[in-house]
């Protein structure tokens, strides 16, 4: 088959799948929540696309009976924690997160024993079990604000992302104790790559996600969460941007700013290392199958839900 014919077939298949998904959503009063790192077809099929903060807020407010989470496992867990009586579906149970995996709950619990007088702040990119050990959950969209709101002399442990933690320490002058975890997608981005792109495009502004290393963040004109970066490039008058984060964000960036140019920081020219392979596990086919059979379902025990809910609610509602 020629490439043009293949594309037509793919588009036709996608349209059919999207129609079937829309039909199932209606029949089952289901909602699809998707992260900006998912592939464009998934973002287009979703009822709501957001970053971790917006998705958690949306999950807390929905009236749907079924939430299909097109993201990664810890995000679906968060949706379940906030909706214990609803069915939460995840298209691929293997859609994990290297950052969440870098903080096993048992090791974290032992670590916390060394700091009994510290408040425990955990980035939302952690397992439900780690959330049960935490006092407050934060996202990249609100971490600075939440840390700033705590008393200046409060001793804090921050987990699991050492880069985000170091960034907050730098911005606030705090000395939070950091768990040594990282996201494999953001942590591999190199300052040399940013500098090389800056040489090629000296007029471009550099934007970076705070999960990147400090040396990368030091070169950035703007550091922020996925939504904060989207808002920045949409609001600013500059025509070009060097983008240090996962590639999925480019779909919405280009959609909102078709006249602007974006250059992605890649650790190697030829690799797709900036693609989070876990996020990319979501596709129209497995979303359709998941909605149809209502499997795989995310299950958490009552105790975990009860304990993990408190630090998430503290983030969302300050309670
Ligand atoms: P935000 O959605 O908070 O920007 O975080 C990015 C991320 O790594 C999601 O897993
Ligand atoms: Fe986890 Fe990194 Fe993928 Fe986000 S981009 S889901 S932090 S592995």
Number of alpha- plus pi-helical segments? 16
Strand content: 5-15%
**H and E string:** HEHEHEHEHHEHEHEHEHHEHEHEHEHH
Give the beta-strand count.
12
The largest beta-sheet arranges its strands as 2-1-3-4
Biggest β-sheet: count, sense, barrel? 4 strands, parallel
Give the cofactors and ligands.
1,3-dihydroxyacetonephosphate, iron/sulfur cluster
Give the tally of structural domains.
3
Predict the CATH topology of the largest domain.
Answer: Rossmann fold
Please report the distance between the alpha carbons of the first and last residues: 59 Å
Q: Whole-number radius of gyration?
A: 20 Å
CATH superfamily placement of the largest domain: NadA-like
Q: Percent helix among the residues?
A: 40-55%
Explain this structure:
The chain has three domains: 115 residues, NadA-like (Rossmann fold, 3-Layer(aba) Sandwich), CATH 3.40.50.10800; 85 residues, NadA-like (Rossmann fold, 3-Layer(aba) Sandwich); 76 residues, NadA-like (Rossmann fold), CATH 3.40.50. It is globular, with a radius of gyration of 20 Å. The protein has 319 residues and is α/β, with parallel strands linked by helices. α1 packs parallel to α15, α3 runs parallel beside α4 and α13 packs parallel to α14. The mean pLDDT is 95. The site of iron/sulfur cluster has 12 residues, from α5 and α10.
Ordered list of secondary-structure elements with their pairings:
Elements: H1 3-28, E1 30-35, H2 40-45, E2 48-50, H3 52-61, E3 66-70, H4 73-82, E4 87-89, H5 98-101, H6 105-113, E5 119-123, H7 128-132, E6 136-138, H8 143-149, E7 156-159, H9 162-172, E8 177-178, H10 184-187, H11 191-200, E9 205-208, H12 214-217, E10 222-223, H13 226-235, E11 240-244, H14 249-256, E12 261-264, H15 284-293, H16 302-317
Parallel strand pairs: 1-2, 1-3, 3-4, 5-6, 5-7, 7-8, 9-10, 9-11, 11-12
Helix pairs in contact: 1-15, 3-4, 4-16, 13-14
This protein binds 1,3-dihydroxyacetonephosphate (13P) and iron/sulfur cluster.
1,3-dihydroxyacetonephosphate binds at residues 51-53, 125, 139-141, 183, 211, 225-226.
């Amino acid at each position: 088959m020629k490439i043009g014919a293949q594309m037509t077939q793919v588009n036709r298949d996608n349209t059919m799948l999207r129609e079937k998904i829309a039909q199932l959503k209606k029949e089952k009063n289901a909602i699809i929540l998707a992260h900006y790192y998912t592939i464009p077809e998934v973002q287009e099929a979703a009822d709501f696309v957001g970053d971790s903060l917006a998705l958690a807020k949306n999950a807390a407010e929905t009236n749907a009976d079924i939430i299909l989470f097109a993201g990664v496992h810890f995000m679906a867990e968060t949706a379940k924690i906030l909706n214990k009586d609803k069915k939460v579906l995840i298209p691929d149970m293997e859609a994990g997160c290297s950052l969440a995996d870098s903080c096993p709950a048992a090791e974290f619990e032992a670590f916390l024993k060394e700091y009994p007088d510290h408040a425990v702040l955990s980035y939302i990119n952690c397992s439900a079990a780690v959330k049960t050990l935490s006092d407050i959950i934060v996202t990249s969209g609100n971490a600075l604000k939440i840390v700033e709101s705590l008393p200046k002399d409060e001793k804090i442990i921050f987990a699991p992302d050492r880069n985000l933690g170091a960034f907050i320490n730098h911005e606030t002058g705090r000395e939070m104790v950091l768990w040594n975890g990282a996201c494999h997608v953001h942590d591999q981005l190199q300052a040399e790559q940013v500098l090389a792109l800056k040489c090629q495009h000296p007029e471009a502004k550099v934007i970076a996600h705070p999960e990147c290393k400090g040396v990368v963040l030091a070169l950035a004109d703007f550091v922020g969460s996925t939504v904060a970066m989207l808002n920045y490039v949409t609001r600013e008058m500059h025509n070009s941007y060097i983008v240090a984060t996962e590639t999925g964000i480019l779909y919405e960036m280009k959609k909102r700013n078709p006249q602007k140019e974006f250059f992605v920081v890649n650790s190697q020219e030829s690799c797709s290392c900036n693609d989070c392979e876990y996020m990319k596990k979501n596709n129209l086919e497995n979303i359709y199958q998941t909605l149809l059979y209502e499997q795989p379902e995310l299950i958490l025990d009552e105790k975990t839900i009860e304990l993990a809910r408190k630090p998430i609610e503290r983030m969302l509602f300050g309670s």
